[in-house]
Model the fold of this input.
Amino acid sequence: MLKDLLPEKLPTSPKKGIKYILDVHTGGRVTSEGYLFLNPSAKGSKEEKWASYIANISGCSKKESPLQKGMLRTEAYNLGINTITLEVERDNMDIFFAAETELKMIRAACKYFRFP
Done:
């Protein structure tokens, strides 16, 4: 769990200034465009605006996914950190195409914050 990764004594807050987390991985039964998962409670939030931007730029499908105990998005949500998950197909897609799709989504996520 995310909390287990944090040191026992924190100088100010467990967030340590973290406002956003991009969770990137692969999964089964994902469209060729990739999925972007966000929390159901994200309507109108910074998280939802970030997710919409990524979906518009990259062409991936945006989906709400319920929080489950132990998930990175769940633990980050409990700490007040905006978190979305980018996912590409791992079983039925060429690895190079999957990597290209994931990179397109990551670039869009970075572009939102004007990273180079």
Remarks:
- The first strand starts at residue 20 and ends at 27.
- The chain has one domain: 17-112.
- The longest helix spans residues 95-112.
